[in-house]
Prior knowledge:
The chain is an alpha+beta fold. The chain contains 8 helices and 12 strands. The chain has helices spanning 3-9, 19-27, 109-117, 120-146, 149-164, 181-188, 192-204, 220-224; strands spanning 29-34, 39-41, 49-55, 58-63, 69-75, 80-81, 95-98, 102-108, 166-167, 173-176, 208-211, 214-217. Strands 1-8-3-6 form a 4-stranded antiparallel sheet. A 4-stranded antiparallel sheet has the order 2-7-4-5. Strands 9-10-12-11 form a 4-stranded antiparallel sheet. Helix 1 (3-9) crosses helix 2 (19-27), helix 5 crosses helix 6 (181-188) and helix 6 (181-188) packs across helix 7. The chain is globular, with a radius of gyration of 19 Å. The mean pLDDT is 83.
Amino acid sequence: MTSTMQYLKQIPVFAELPDSQLAQIGANTLERLYRRGAVIFMEGEPGEGFHYVLSGKVKIVKATDDGREHIIKILGPGDIFAEVLLFNNQPYPATAIAVEESRVGIIKNSDLERLVLSNNRLALQLIKALSQRLLYAQQKIKNLALNDVLARTAETLLRLGKEHGRPGPDGSIGITLELSRQDLASLVGTTRETVTRTLSSLKKDRIIDFDGQEMVILQPRKLQSYIQA
């Protein structure tokens, strides 16, 4: 199996497809390498195609009316993005930026649409992926509307731990992300000063610990208890 097909097998939306169909997808995939901080695409630019992360991490951000950056999601290997542009000629609804050196696969919309129309299984997988993205958006809106900063910080840390963490033998979760306090504040939906105070309080209570870009969730259950049902 080629290197590209091996990577495709690790992407949930493609994982259940037979090798013959993976080969078709691989033949229509462009691979691009982005350095840390590089813009993959800008909000408002013409939508080029369906993207997925092969290696590294990518953040999806939305500009607010006052020019600030709101991080919608942090993506890692296997995650897809810009899938909402399928079957429509709309501009990118947000900006994608490489958090670290990242390799990204891109399939032009016209090529993927052609593959979807001839492949029911791929169509079903993409529908599932779009449904999961919609559920994530609904949960985030609910979180912002109903939870206080502590609860939102706890939810964000646990989500980062689930998506990018390393479980420890003692039940802790280690996280290494090249995110600034401002980035984390954007994910939580608050100010940098507020999220810094909240993290310091959680550290003082020995619920989390951190040093630079390294963070450890020492008590995941305690952190979970701060989140409203």
